[in-house]
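Table S2 (text version). Query chain:
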Amino acid sequence: MSRAVAFYQSLVGQKLIMAVTGILLYLFLLEHVAGNLLTFGGPGPLNRYAALLKNPDLLPVLWVARVGLIIALILHLIAAVRVTVANWQARPVSYFRRKDVETNYAARTMIVSGPLIFLYLIYHLMMFTFLTTGPGYSETDVYRNVVLAFQVPAISAVYIVTMIILGYHLWHAGWSMVQTLGITWPTRPGLRGWLFPAIGVLIAVGFISVPVAVLTGIVR
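Corresponding structure-token output:
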């Protein structure tokens, strides 16, 4: 038990937790963007999908998934803070001249993009899950809620900016996950360099396409 606790408290342990929970959150985002894209099919597909998530027969499974995601998110946030603080403490004095080799803009802004995404997540849940904010309050017509919300330019703008930030976050997150877990492609060494940026862009574009379609009248 003491070894397990020591490993959890170590920097390697925290990075491993970030990687494993990051995979779970990645899978959730892929499922979520797929659900959002049902908006293009009209009220029927999206409302049936929303009703499925409230099906009494599936509630036990859904709640296990929800609790698991909440735990994963909390552990991810804690590990991210601890790793960042450890990195700061390891280099309390800034470099006189710095040249980045294995990092990029997405990596350097992770400590900012993460909290911003988390704050928007709370607002997003209040609008579309708890129905306490936003212009749409129907518990059954989710399609109507989405359209009414994204018809407001300010709501769409905040959403779009947040999804761009999410894309940047996923850009580095995926690269970091496979590095931490030791996953490599010996025959394709450059695969890691473009695969996860591409996934991050696709997820961000998938989310952004919905408010853009509403604003332009494609979805109404």
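Notes on Table S2: The chain has a mean pLDDT of 85. Residues 59-90 form the longest helix (32 residues).
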